[in-house]
Amino acid sequence: MYKIEKSDLGFHLTFGGTITKGELEEWYKESEQVLATQQVPFGVIIDMRTLAPLPVEAQGIMVRGQSMYRSRGMQRSCVILEDPITTIQFRRLAKQSGIFLYERYIDASAHKDWRQQAEKWVKGAVCPGR
Predict the structure, then answer these.
(1) For the chain, what are the domain ranges?
(2) What is the secondary structure of 5-22 as a DSSP string?
């Protein structure tokens, strides 16, 4: 399951459950459409608290999508996770896509104020936990 929502920061993306390659391809196409009309720069908060690790065949699509968001004006992003394996996977994918320097990660199980921390990073480059 995925969801793309516009917000005052730019976008709020939600990924949950087990996502297939086909679902990520749909997300990529829908992202292309919404990014075509987006004012730049913008930020993104990504809620992945319930996402299972991506299957190998879907990871390349996520990398392409991350690169697309960055090339279309994404200034900063913050990923909210709870699963350590998914966290490791998305840090690796962000390095592959080139967005790692602009992205921060928050463990929602350890930080109940994750939304406020994410907004501070996306709006003003205040690192989570500060």
Answers:
(1) 2-22+42-124
(2) EEETTEEEEEEEE---HH
